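Predict the holo structure. Ligand: iron/sulfur cluster.
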Amino acid sequence: MKFDKITEPLDRRLAEGLTRLAAVARQLDWQTAESVGLSPTQADILRFVASRPEGIRLTAAAEHAGIRKATASEAVTTLETKSMLRKQADATDGRAIVLKATPKGERLAREWPSSFGPIIEGLSEDEQELLYRLVIKMIRQLQQRQLIAPQRTCVSCRHFRENVAPGTSTPHFCAFVSSPMAERHLRIDCPEHKSAA
Ligand code: SF4
């Protein structure tokens, strides 16, 4: 068929499409950051720290943002100046310092609009569920290849029992809450996550 010869391979077209979607999401995130006087990196670190109320080390924040520790440190200093983050001694190790969001930083992170919201809102619930499954699969593969910082996903959690009821609508089980789980219940960032590693 002629189109088989003149069409780019599927994986390249898929990558191109995802790149464009990511660019749109990034642009929306930048606009939001700019509207509150933050750089994209500062905004990323603020939201990451706010999602860890127990406190998080600078190294983990730098890993999450994919930047050098020195760059993360500069972003944290700015966020401190703006009264959005604060440093305090780690409760588990008094010599270490953790970052925590202030009430002002927490509020800003909580109200931050989802940059992918406009991208996925046109999909049906079934389509969103299918896409969610694929996203989890991709994150898992990246984790296994150590290409992204560790994520608090079900598939890397010691409480997760995968496919213990095959063929049912809730094939998985979370031992933390002792409850069956459907694919759509799987979490990408769970506060109760305990690494299986
Ligand atoms: S504790 Fe959280 S991450 Fe772990 S299996 Fe349960 S829901 Fe998933």
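The chain has a mean pLDDT of 93. Strands lie at 85-90, 93-101, 160-161, 172-174, 179-181.
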